[in-house]
Amino acid sequence: MARNLEIEVSHLTVRYPRTHAPALADVSFSIPKGELALLLGPSGGGKSTLALALTGLIPHSIFARVEGTVRVAGLNPAETRPEKVAARVGILFQDPEAAFATLTVEDELAFGLENLALPPEQMPARIISALRAVGMEAFLHRPLQTLSGGEAQRIALAAVLAMEPDVLVLDEPTANLDPAATRAFFSTLGSLKGQHTILLIEHKLDECWRLADRVVILGEGGRLLASGAPEPTLRSHLAEVLRAGVWVPREYDPRAGRLPPPDVFPPLREPPAVEVRGLRFAYADTPVLDGIDLTIPQGDFVAVLGANGAGKSTLAMQIAGLLPAPQEGEIRLFGKPLEDIPPRERAELVGFVFQNPEHQFVTDRVWDELAYSLRVRGWAEEEIRRRVEQLLAEFRLTDHADRNPFTLSQGQKRRLSVGTMLAAGQRLLILDEPTFGQDRNTAYALMERLRALNKQGVTVMMISHDLRLAREYARRAIVLARGRVVYDGAPSQLHEGVTQRTPRIKTTDYTD
To answer: For the chain, what is the total number of helices (H) and then of strands (E)?
Structure first.
């Protein structure tokens, strides 16, 4: 049996500098060749650290103290030259931009092949085959900077597949994908089973649970909670798994779909928080928003949904004033034209959480990141200290207060980015995928916090691919398709509304 093991981890402990506890603690498990294993665990529980250790990025590129042994595809990643590991073990990161090294899609896929010293005449076929596998053949010549988050994720996957590794390590590869693209991705993954040994870190378990041959579950403190066949392993450890905050398939989640519907809408206050009229915007020659009209009253809780590339993030950044002025149209915030609101006043009105949390970090210490906006606003140091300590505790970051924000796990980065936005109490909160990278307990706690703020009169605009969250927390759903509003109404009626208003839109793209 040992000869058929593709991944072997024995007593692995990984500790980062300036941390009180190890990211992984005495972890042991194995995965046979050709199997697909799901790696589950809470946010900050060591999943990404394990992925980095399996690929040799720890310790070659990311400094950490490593104890124990790891063997992947017959190699010890810690003792093998990185280029040799890369030829056998491919990794897809949570943040696709972290993997990009060039400017265009074609060059990005060719980059890895060049590092493998593949003959140039063999590259075009490899590139087209990899793009076809992820449904992105038409993007061959696209600049990477024009891709949506979901499109970038699929291109990053194609770049890994083009190298034809024995082992695939996929760190939440569908995090930025819409529901239809997620299903397509897992269909592709199913076709790759047997051709590769796959370790998949994933939260969208309803779509991929049946693909798995085994499950590896990490608990709190980076310790192995369980490993084995998916169904019996989860059933026998369900209470511990739920207590640790690990996502589980809906059929095992006692909380799924059982939250009460949103409260009745509060009395209208004038002026509206957001007014958008005739908004048209393009990046260079690429149209993104095509005549957007919408009004968001003060105190509303709006979920903005739509397929990748529909214009959701662009609309949010336009409303927040984070992009150049649109080619046409007008945006008003609380009755004032956006262009007439000075940047400092705009920051007092609007809090914004980026899809990629790293885009908003401005300091080299978690504590200072939370304090930054308060210092800019002139808060007294004692008030800042109390507020920062409160936020550190609320977002489970107290033990990471002295770390550099860029060294946190993706889930911890997201919690920090939300915490920095909530520090100063703006009247309009715009959150781009706020539960991305969060474990079950943290995601529900964050949504409950947003609900509480909304009850206090804060207007919330949440971009999400999760229709379940929209139905449970939002009063209103807005669906974008091809840069236009194709549905604006109750989340509970979303499927029917899209069907009636836009028969060309596949309603399955917006179902959970």
So the answer is: 18, 19
